[in-house]
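Exercise (ungraded).
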Amino acid sequence: MRENVIDFSEVFNDSFDTIRLNSATFYDRFYQVFREASPDIDRVFNGVDIEKQKDMLHIAIMHLVQFFVSKEADSYLLKVAYHHKKIYQVSDEMYDLFFDSLMQTLSEFYPKYGPTCRVAWKITLAPGLELMKNIADIYDQNILGDSIP
Ligand code: HEM
């Protein structure tokens, strides 16, 4: 790393590699931490097939990373955002708990985890999380017509 420069992409990618290499155990632990974060979240996942959910979440996180790079929201991301807002009724607070649970899990798997790593994740996931939190503004103005669901 160059002096006085923080390469957040490098910090993010190094920690994300740890998730990629341990994805089954990582997402197992993540859902445990996330469900323990609030009774509302625990309730939402009652009866949900967590095995299926784990794979979908990993793919979705890769889409969020891609969105950070491109700022192009494809139909996949719009649909996931729409489902979370309109069907699962996910609040901003729940998204914040999602992020904190993800970081708690990462800290258990990634020995180099620390404040810089957390900031790298905040920066990288911010555009996608903002899209998901604010999707109703786009949908409610009918900008996308009836095409999302
Ligand atoms: C950035 C954060 C999140 C990502 C990337 C994400 C990703 C996904 C994906 C890809 C699916 C399956 C496809 C779909 O239903 O659209 C899903 C389903 C779901 N998510 Fe999320 N999710 C996130 C946050 C949350 C939060 C905060 C909650 C709140 C508790 C939540 C609750 C659910 C529920 C209830 C389902 C449906 C499960 C089922 O019935 O099979 N998600 N999520």
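Further reading is listed at the end of the chapter. For now, observe: The chain has one domain: 8-140. The CA atoms of residues 118 and 127 lie 15 Å apart.
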